Each structure stands twice: as structure tokens, then as C-alpha cells.
Amino acid sequence: MIEFPQVKRIVEAALLAAAQPLSLAQLSALFGENEAVSHEELARALEVLGADCAERGVELVEVASGFRYQVRQDVHAWVARLWTERQTRYSRALLETLALIAYRQPITRGEIEQIRGVAVSTNIVKTLEEREWVRVVGYRDVPGKPALFGTTKNFLDYFNLKSLDELPPMAEIRDIEDFDPQLTLAPVALADDADEVLVASETEAANEESANDDSADAAPEHNA
């Protein structure tokens, strides 16, 4: 049987070594049948590890996929200097599309276009799907069977959420151009650094949106 201090050390090491959040089931799988580590002990280890971070530059958080260490927001500006890649600003069109999917899912592309009043760029939908922030969750039972879009666990993980219930009320987002999801929600995981930058304003998207929206090029920028 493994003593609790060792369980705590193993859990800490696993979380630091992992490239993604780890669930209780994944942490439990680290131990053999004869080592008898219960979910209660793992939960206690996570609680203690979280408390240990109180005065540190990192914190232990729970997101949709499990638990992970991440850089605290109050020191993020300094740590971000390690990442040499320039952060690409989010386009207004992409932000509006992502917000509508997040808050009104499941939703079709046509419904998004009806609400926004402009066509949704194919490139924007493709970018969100490639980013694995949105996916097709079904099809509307109407002629043409349009695809229904919804968000993914990757979306929740990136924006530091355990569930959609933790999304801020839409009323708090007064101007979509001033809404920077990286500042407001997104985590900065120790294992996921400069790669967590979304290239949103590609030429095709800008060309398709500019005819309808003068602000399609970029929105102001940065919780990751």
C-alpha cells in the first residue's frame, strides 16, 4: 500500500509531465491493483496540491477534461515573454461566430448567419473545427438536414471552464470587439504555450467578410 505523501508526489509529477489535463480516472490508472489508491485519496491529494500553490506563480485548476497546473494570471505577462511567436488578433467575425455557437448551441450555420446578418465565412468554420473548439453535434430535422454546431471539451479546457454553465453572461460582453477571450477566460497551461494562439484573420476570411463587415480584420487583444 502506498502512503499518502507518496501518492501526492506521484500525482504532482504526473500533472507536471502530462501534455493535457488528467482526469481522476487517468490518475487512478497510474496505480496498480495491489496499491489500493482510492478516488478519495486522489481527491485529497489534489486538494492538498492546490493549497500548496497558494503563494506560487502556478495554480492547480480543474477544467472539463480534468486537472492541470497553469500559470497564474498575475504573472502571465512575464512568463509570456518566453514565447516568441506573435499572438494573432481575433477577427470580429470569428469572435461573433464562436460566441453564438457557445451560447446558443446546438446551432446551424444558417441560424448564425440570420443572427449576424451576414454570411459566415467557410474559412472561419474550418478554423474553429481545426482548432477543435467546435464540432458537428447533429443535424437539424428540416429539409437539407443542416449541420448543428456545438463546442467541445477542448473549447472548455482552453477557456479554463469545467462546463458551459461557467460562461460569463452575454450581458457582460457589451462589445464583441472589446471581448478578448484569452484575457477573460483562456488558460495558460504549462504544457501548452505559444501554440495556444489562434490564427483567425487569414486572407480568405478577411476577403469574404470585408464586404459585409468593416471590422472583420481584427479585434483588440489578452485568461490561457
How do the strands and helices of this protein lay out in sequence?
Blueprint (H helix, E strand, L loop, with lengths): L3 H14 L6 H5 L10 H14 L5 E6 L2 E6 L1 H7 L12 H13 L2 E2 H8 L5 H9 L3 E6 L7 E5 L1 H6 L22 H4 L18 H8 L14
Antiparallel strand pairs: 1-2, 3-5, 4-5
Structural overview:
With 224 residues, the protein is α+β, with helices and mostly antiparallel strands. The protein folds into 2 domains: 79 residues, Winged helix-like DNA-binding domain superfamily/Winged helix DNA-binding domain (Arc Repressor Mutant, subunit A); 119 residues, Arc Repressor Mutant, subunit A (Orthogonal Bundle). 39% of the residues lie in helices and 11% in strands. It has 10 helices and 5 strands. The strands form 2 sheets. The protein has a 3-stranded antiparallel sheet. A two-stranded antiparallel ribbon has the order 1-2. Helix 1 crosses helix 3. The longest helix has 14 residues. The chain is elongated. The two termini are 38 Å apart. The C terminus is likely disordered.
What strand order characterises the main sheet? 3-5-4
Global structural class: alpha+beta
The H/E string reads HHHEEHHEHHEEHHH
Specify the helix fraction band: 25-40%
Flag low-confidence runs: 177-224
Write the CATH homologous superfamily of the largest domain: Winged helix-like DNA-binding domain superfamily/Winged helix DNA-binding domain
Cα Rg: 20 Å
Number of domains: 2
CATH topology label of the largest domain: Arc Repressor Mutant, subunit A
Q: End-to-end distance, in Å?
A: 38 Å
Strand content: 5-15%
Report the CATH architecture of the largest domain: Orthogonal Bundle
The main sheet comes to: 3 strands, antiparallel
CATH class of the largest domain: Mainly Alpha
Number of helices: 10
